[in-house]
Amino acid sequence: xxxxxxxxxxxxxxxxxxxxxxxxxxxxxxxxxxxxxxxxxxxxxxxxxxxxxxxxxxxxxxxxxxxxxxxxxxxxxxxxxxxxxxxxxx
Length: 90
What we know:
Blueprint: H1 3-28, H2 36-52, H3 62-69, H4 75-88
Helix pairs in contact: 1-2, 1-4, 3-4
């Protein structure tokens, strides 16, 4: 993967990170509909993905949790799964 493709991935990751952060904030305020601890773990994994940019160096667990626990039509879950697919192609 070239530098331009990595930059596109990082921008997408930053966008998804922002969406997860917002949901985490809502959970902290008692307004969210997700598990706050799971979102906190996802945020940590997204930071690691950005740091490593290599699925051989760091393989996130969150896709398994989303596939097992979240609704199939969940918008945030779909964004996270798409990001995971892109990460595995790096």
